[in-house]
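Appendix B, Record 12. Input sequence as logged:
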Amino acid sequence: MRKQIKPIIDLRDWLTRIQRIGELQSVTEVVDPIEEMSAITYLIARQKTSPAILFESPGSAIGLRHLWNIFGSSVSRTAISLEEASDTPTIELIRRTKEKLTYSIAPLEVPADQAPIYQNTLTGNDIDLTQLPIPKHWPKDGGVYAGTADAVFTRDLESGYLNIGTYRMMIQGPRQVGLSMAPGKDALRHIHQAWAKGLPLPIAAAWGIDPLMMVVGSQSLPPDVSEYDFAGGIKGKPIEVVRACTSDLLIPAAAEIVIEGVIRPGSTRDEGPFGEFTGYYGYKDIDCPLIDVTMLHYRTHPILTNALMADYPSNEQGAFFSTIRSAKIWNELDKLGIQGIKGVYCPPAAAGAFGMIVISLEQKYAGHVAQTLALAGQVPGGAYITKWIVAVDEDIDPTDWNQVLWAMATRATPSDDMDILRNTRGSPLDPAQNPPEKRFFGSKALINACKEYRNIRNFPVRTLLRQSVYERVSSRWSSLGLSGEVPEITSFDMELN
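Logged structural output:
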């Protein structure tokens, strides 16, 4: 029976829950935010059980604490963040998340006096971001970054649509922050829209957030779909928000740290480089929009959420993005009417889950696999960067790389079962494309690792366990003196009882 989970209230509630499952490591000694915190995070993330790390030694006058490795490679912490039980298996978590993506619940605005984020506020010259212990992640980073696990709030000046995005934010001065965004992002469109009218754009950013906001902020949604509604559908209750002090933007009422400000017409500054999710330094952002910070709100003893971008498993993006991206692609294939999809998985090791998609499906008709592969590479959830798309039959668990490789080795013929999509959507962060101006275009390899449909009825029979024997052996596992958990098997010889 599916466990009923009480929705997470805020980041502090989330910390209590992951501590309960033994996945929170507190560090009370003083650690330098300049490269030391990130170095510890990089190393901890490579351990078999990689906990979230809370550096508790308060820094600066506001008593700032730092949270790193929020998700790491942990499926358990990802499940908790998506309001599911910590022991939910990966493919089941993706399936449940896919179901939740069909729901939306509008946010609930609360009065300012009920919003924890307004416990403390600084304005004007009292704000000096350079005096805060903001981290530098990598030796060649262009500066210190407060915005890595963040939520950035902007509004379309014509439609009124409120967007939430996750972008890198480098401190540029006591009251100035750079905002780096890839082309096509909604916040960048809002900025250019305001500048075209000669107007400043109000903006807010939360630097300490419920991890769910980081999950939804990383997704590309249609311009008329609110990320708050999206998050509410996952949480199963409205996200509590409060109106900003200097604009009509709505910010999370229980965020840890929020800045308010404006981006004035034509106000830019160079930003970066920054160590990115690919495991390489990203580009230096020229003419990056510059935020003039007018207010700084924070809870007492606030927590700054930090996301290290690196090679897997030290990539903060890997586990959570793998889950939400897989669910989104699966949901989009469902909406297109593609039959027989049994699972979708974006491996977290593939450049933060951006580089590959594996789809398990039951073949229903001739051309079914080719259709699915092509569409998976073009739906909004799968178009960006993806280089490798693999289809496997329904007896293959797409989250089990051993099974996927076995299917590729025994069911695919490279000369017949590979196609290439060219001039697809790439990324300026792709180090494989050179010279750099080529990076906005990419290509995708489509690999059919399914049984040949023309010969599917005569395809050699796979060696599978009899289910009754599996169940008998499993029930006697401990009494037989066998160690460890019984491996889970989902495919059995169905012709035998």
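The chain has 13 helices and 22 strands.
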